[in-house]
Write a structure and sequence with these properties.
The chain is α/β, with parallel strands linked by helices and about 210 residues long. It has helices spanning about 60-65, 85-100, 110-115, 120-125, 140-145, 155-165, 185-195, and strands at about 15-20, 20-25, 45, 50, 75, 105-110, 130-135, 170-175, 200. The protein has a single domain (about 15-200), classed as Alpha-Beta Barrel (TIM Barrel).
Length: about 210
């Protein structure tokens, strides 16, 4: 006979290791509703890690989930959610990591200023070394089609955020997904070049 005892749910993945870096999963909330996002297809697993959270972790829980940061090249805020929506938590955990001498990166939609209604790049720049911003497309229509933003003006706002992040002293990389319908990857790269920031071609579903 099989036991009818329910199988306990797996522990939530607050931190996960990839490419010698430690990634932090701080929220599932997003300002965008990307059509290509795995979570909108019911898929929360990214490169073997189940990123579904049952609740948002606290600063203490995240710092405990990091443990000893020494082995990692970078601590990266990145999950299937937008880390800057939890700005206070992000700043506090990032400050602790800077104190420990670590390089800190935030993978973001670049919409923090639009959402928070102020320029948060100076606050970020105090504790964050690099931001990797999803540009996603070369023009607003293509951007809106793929990312379905909850707020108007997102495409312009993310480019303004990138310029301010650059001016605040953070290393800025714009990224776009190669092969996404209607996305002109070379035109995306030109936007990054015109802003004087780096560019990275991404592959769909690959975290980095
Ligand atoms: S920003 Fe990232 S996590 Fe959020 S909906 Fe888009 S792909 Fe998914």
């Amino acid at each position: 006979m099989h036991s009818t005892r329910p199988v306990p749910p797996p522990e939530p993945t607050l931190s996960y290791e990839l490419h010698g870096n430690l990634y932090l999963n701080v929220t599932w909330h997003c300002t965008l509703r990307c059509a290509f996002c795995p979570k909108f297809n019911g898929e929360w697993e990214v490169q073997g890690y189940d990123l579904r959270l049952r609740r948002e972790p606290s600063v203490t829980e995240l710092i405990e989930a990091i443990g000893d940061p020494a082995p990692y090249h970078e601590i990266v805020f990145c999950g299937l959610g937008e880390p800057t929506l939890r700005l206070d938590v992000l700043l506090e955990v990032a400050a602790a990591m800077k104190k420990a001498g670590k390089r800190v990166r935030v993978n973001t939609d670049g919409l923090a200023n639009l959402v928070h209604g102020r320029d948060v790049t100076p606050e970020l720049a105090r504790v964050v070394d690099a931001v990797s911003i999803s540009l996603n497309a070369q023009d607003e229509a293509t951007y809106v089609r793929h990312t379905r933003p909850k707020r108007a003006g997102a495409f312009a706002a993310l480019q303004d955020f990138a310029a301010r992040a650059r001016d605040a002293g953070m290393e800025v990389t714009l990224s776009a997904i190669d092969g996404l319908d209607g996305v002109d990857i070379n035109a995306c790269e030109r936007i990054a070049r015109d802003l004087g920031v780096k560019f990275r071609r991404r592959v769909l579903d690959a975290v980095g």
